[in-house]
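hiii so um. not sure if this is the right channel but i have a protein structure encoded as tokens and i wanna go backwards to a sequence. like what aa goes where. can anyone help
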């Protein structure tokens, strides 16, 4: 739930004061975004968020005391925790994989133009992800050995209808809603309806988590 003003409440987490100040200055100029706190590491961020409501957390990855991946993982365990948008100077698959596995809804580099960061915050706050599902799928394929999908199908798949499982499988393959609609010969609006039900039934936050679940549950396999 957003603030009464309707503004998106943001917490900035980074161990470099100048970077925190820079983000705070850029975001303060946005009429629909409010910076409600700053922290210099993951542990401080968790303590801050225990007493401060936020919609989105801009999270650095490599920080002392507690890194951004662990902090993101702990936030993901909360029933109504904020969404996490990870920013890092390290353009590596390992960082992206770890952040997405931990539950981040987005992954951007720190040299991303300010306008794109602002847009990403709005997208994540709206419940979407800013990492294309095809990119997520490529990362999972690359690190298939680390993910080690279960040999047995996830029991939660039984909560889905046959059509919902078809849609989830295609989401897991990296297809967009329009591509899924074309593949299944149904309207794109129908795909969106099915996908919304999938997220609700499986208690998933967004498309990134759906792709990871489809892979981890055994519904899709590497390079399928």
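sure thing!! here u go:
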């Amino acid at each position: 739930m957003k603030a009464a003003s309707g503004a998106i409440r943001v917490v900035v987490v980074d161990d470099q004061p100048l970077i925190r100040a820079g983000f705070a200055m850029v975001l303060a100029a946005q009429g629909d975004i409010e910076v409600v706190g700053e922290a210099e590491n993951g542990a401080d961020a968790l303590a801050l968020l225990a007493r401060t409501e936020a919609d989105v957390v801009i999270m650095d990855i490599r920080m002392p005391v507690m890194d951004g991946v662990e902090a993101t993982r702990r936030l993901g365990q909360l029933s109504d925790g904020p969404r996490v948008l990870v920013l890092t100077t390290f353009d590596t698959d390992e960082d992206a994989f770890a952040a997405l596995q931990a539950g981040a809804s987005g992954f951007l580099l720190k040299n991303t133009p300010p306008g794109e960061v602002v847009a990403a915050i709005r997208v994540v706050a709206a419940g979407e992800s800013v990492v294309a599902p095809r990119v997520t799928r490529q990362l999972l394929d690359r690190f298939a050995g680390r993910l080690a999908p279960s040999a047995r199908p996830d029991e939660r798949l039984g909560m889905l209808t046959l059509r919902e499982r078809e849609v989830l499988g295609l989401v897991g393959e990296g297809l967009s809603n329009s591509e899924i609609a074309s593949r299944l010969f149904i309207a794109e609006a129908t795909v969106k309806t099915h996908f919304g039900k999938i997220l609700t039934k499986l208690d998933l936050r967004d498309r990134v988590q759906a792709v990871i679940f489809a892979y981890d549950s055994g519904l899709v396999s590497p390079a399928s």
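oh and The chain has a mean pLDDT of 86.
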